[in-house]
Amino acid sequence: MSVSDPIADMLTKIRNGASAKHEKVDIRPSKLKMEIIKILKNEGYVKNFKKVTQDEIDLIRVFLKYDETEQSIIHGLKTVSTPGRRVYSGYKNMPRVYNGLGTVIVSTSSGVITGRKAVANKVGGEIICTVW
Fold it and tell me: Which domain holds residue 22?
């Protein structure tokens, strides 16, 4: 089955795996997905990730992170831009998630970065998703 929005599919797999308390989820790789997962790791939402090959299929294995009470670190993961509705923002109007407690992931001309880095670098771009 073909997927019309692979980023939303990846975020849904991570969200569902976290709510089902899985240790890891496997995702089909792309450069954009890899950059988003790197940001999730740097911001502390996932434990780790690595590239694996299973039955001659390349995958990104994402290890989910939980706190001491076995609750997921990811409380919410929401897709903002979709193939039918692209959402762009300048650095002056960059949205904030839970007054700065969450993270906005933005695709800019200088790569995929967080909303805080986009404001610091004074670049805008397409808002991919929000995480809290």
Answer: 6-131
104 phi, psi to nearest 5 deg: -105, 130
pTM over 0.85: yes
User: d(Cα 26, Cα 94) in Å, to the nearest integer?
Assistant: 31
Instruction: Identify the bridge partners of residue 104 per DSSP, sorted by sequence position.
Output: 130
Structural domain total, the chain: 1
pLDDT at 42: 97
Q: In whole angstroms, give the CA distance from residue 113 to residue 25.
A: 23
Unique residue bearing structure tokens 């700065």: 100
Enumerate residue ranges in the chain where pLDDT < 50.
none
CB 67 within 8 A of CB 21: no
132 class by beta-carbon count within 10 Å (0-12 exposed, 13-18 middle, 19+ buried): middle
The first and second tokens of residue 47, run together, are 């434990």
